[in-house]
Amino acid sequence: MSNAMKFLVVDDFSTMRRIVKGLLNELGYSDVTEADDGNTALPLLRNGSFDFLITDWNMPGMPGLELLKAVRGDPKLAKLPVLMLTAEAKREQIVEAAQAGVSGYVIKPFTAATLKEKIDKILASRAAA
Amino acid sequence: MPPDNTLSERYRSHVDELASALEANDAVAFRGAFDRLRGELNVELNPELKRITVSAQDALRRFREQARLEVLADQEVPDARRRLAHVVKLTEEAAHRTLDLVEQSSPLVDRMSNDAASLLEEWGLHGSRQLAVSTLWPERACENLERSLRDAELVRRYLSQMLLAQGYQDLSGQIINAVIRLVIELETMLAQLVALADSGDTRRMPVLKLDAAAEEALQSRGAGPKVPGVAESVYVDGQDDIDALLASVAGGPR
Hints:
The complex is a heterodimer. Chain A is an alpha/beta fold. Helices cover 47% and strands 18% of the residues of chain A. In chain A, strands 2-1-3-4-5 form a five-stranded parallel sheet, with helices on both faces. In chain A, strand 1, helix 1 (14-26) and strand 2 form a beta-alpha-beta unit. Chain A is globular, with a radius of gyration of 13 Å. By secondary structure, chain B is mainly alpha-helical. Chain B has eight helices and no strands. In chain B, 11% of the residues are buried. Chains A and B meet through helix 1, helix 4, strand 5 and helix 5 of A and helix 5, helix 6 and helix 8 of B.
């Protein structure tokens, strides 16, 4: 079942998208789509039946926080698991993301183990809910 | 053209002063009166120059008063230095990390390759010349395969770590972009200063200012990676700190 999960990875740095995609592949998730910004991501999400969103914060067109808010504000997407994977590490930002409904938050630099742990944790709490 | 009586009002006293000095043969008084008359003429006959003088003085005063200038000098430029130094450190560490992993992987791959080659050679000799292969060949082959399995697993792990090590590009890219934005701002200020020195007319200065919408967009972009020595107190300490913070927010993560 985990192999069938559809991931969307959003980051304006192509190297980071490749790294996350590589790590997801290692974890057994082969269906990984990339987007370079919130603006390109949103239509993909709306049309795409994705199961999991991993997004950066600091992006030029639509930053991750706004993407999160747009997702939570759309009835079709509101329940989508959203993991923020970002260098933004100020306390007030993390609180802001939590209040906007983020499912998990990982700061860069991160380890493969942390990424796996957070994904598993989010999926587990979804399954339990 | 100013009407006649205005001309007379303006210059009467200067001309009178000049005439008196001339009459009295007072060179010093004459030169003084002459300079004042010339000054008045310059200003009055060239209203543009008067406006520019006032405008330049005003602009210079406003320039000095700009709080932004102080913030740039005292905080943002030193921060920029620390940020760029951090980038150098990040890239160096990432390069060394990757090289370490390459060095750790190479001998494993070499061993796998050499062991396989020697076993195959022995098998090949047996096959081509009908030599009896050593009775221990199957055991050795088994041992070799098991070791190769372990080595391959190690190499896979090293490759995964090499993948992660490339994360420096994103972090250093974000830091460098922030410094570029600072440089643009400094560039604008310098251009304004140069224009001020040149013409004294601040209205004709090239303005590289970002419009309000772009300014706001920049604000919501975020602050970028934590850099040692730059506003450290507002940052979390690590992933555990974050988990605690998330849990403490009313309702927690969804």
